[in-house]
Input
Amino acid sequence: MDNERLNTTVIDIKDAVVSYREDIALRGVSLKVESGEFVGVIGPNGAGKTTLLTVVNGLGKLLRGQVRVLGNRLNSGNGHSLRKKVGYVPQVENIDPRMPMNVREVAMIGRYGVLGLFRKPGKYDWKVVDEMLDLVGMTHLARRPIGHLSGGEQQRVAIARCLAQEPEIFLLDEPTASLDWKAQTEILGLVKQIHDSRNLTTLFVTHDLGALPVACDRVVLMKEGLITAEGPPGTLLTNENLGQLYDMPVSVVEKKRGEASLV
Amino acid sequence: MDLSIFSYQFMQNAILSAFLGGIACSVIGVFVVLMHMPFIGVCMSHAAFAGALLGIWLGFNPLIGAFVVCLLVAAIIGPLADRGELSPETSLGVIFSLMLGIAFLFMGLMPGTKSGALELLWGSILANTRSDIILLAVVAVVVVGLILIFFKEIQATIFNRNMALSVGLPATLILYGILFLTGATVTTSLRSIGGLLIFSLILNPAAAAYQLTYSMKRMFLLSAVFGVLSGWIGLLFSCLFDIPSGATIVVTSSIIFMVAAIFSPKRKVKAWQVKPVMEGQ
Output
């Protein structure tokens, strides 16, 4: 499609250090992501995976290092405008069941940044939102209060909201965590399909090891605020590497993966 | 019933004050309810009270004192609320009790009669002057105007601040704007409703509206209607039975909330919603 954008670096993180209070979340992380790539990020809890995503959309505050997104160096001034091109699906969050907003209105939030101040959503914006809700299979629930949906449905709406933004970069933070197996598979398939059809660049944080080889061009392993290894999923996801990553004996990893594939 | 009392200037002023204060407070209440930060309202109203007493003690306009201390508290609360991941209740509790302590400290230091101070505590809507009403009108118009102009930004910020930030909205600025408006509203309504009671006029109408609708626009509207009704009905009872207006206004708003809670369609929804979740676990 867009040949010029192929093989250009859209995310370029150099030696990023991020700290929250006393904890150092990232200890000097460098990562380049090319246009159109689908990169999976795995690692134990507290490895800095979420922080890595927030560095890309400019919400994580860098102590050191620099980040270039879509060719622009992120600084405190351009975060708002760059974020409009970066879609972010956060981890499943509890939504107040009485929240007075319906599914369509929540998905519309994705367009608010792009619209800018003083402009109300117009016909085109609602059309985009309805298309995206259709894409994630949520049209039948469009008028429901958002708090009445199940976790998987809310996650689909979050993806629709993110897509309504018409982003160039797609950041997903464990979008399938805490969902049942069926919802996990469905949402992952949906993300992959959207990535391919919309020519996005995707950074995907997950615990779902089984899903990685299917979806990802490249996998990044993170531990204790560092990237410990990266490469194609086939060669990288060995039992030895995973054992090291999660501090488990290789035999246990083997057993667990065997069980997982049986599901 | 003798309604001739409504032809007096002070009564008309009171009716107008209840209308304007009812709108401003109850609309601010929607933020307080939906952003789950009831303590912020309590802190603010006591901060305003302490600031006003400081003004009386040192001999300057109590409203200026109230507003300045409100802004100070907003500057402390803002970063706490902004950080989000930490529950700010403990720190707010400290600020709240500090404000109350300071207020009574000033009251103790004040020489002579304390009637002015007590008036701020209980409120006296019947003593409102033209300038009070103009001030209330300005705040009500600014609050409603800003909500209309920035509705989509406010809606997104209320729904989820991090999400609003991640789509490129200045959610932090909006949060501080909301705190600022809360301070301004509390300050200007202080004399009419009273420092102890103002919080319930903020919380109750919004909490009642919250029981009744799934549309945020309607929630703002309903809350404003309930706020004005609380003010007017409270005023009426205050005159009929010759009791303090601040108290009747608050009791009315509480009754409206109770009625809304009893007839809330959301309670039924919750009842059948909780069950399947329990079974699934």
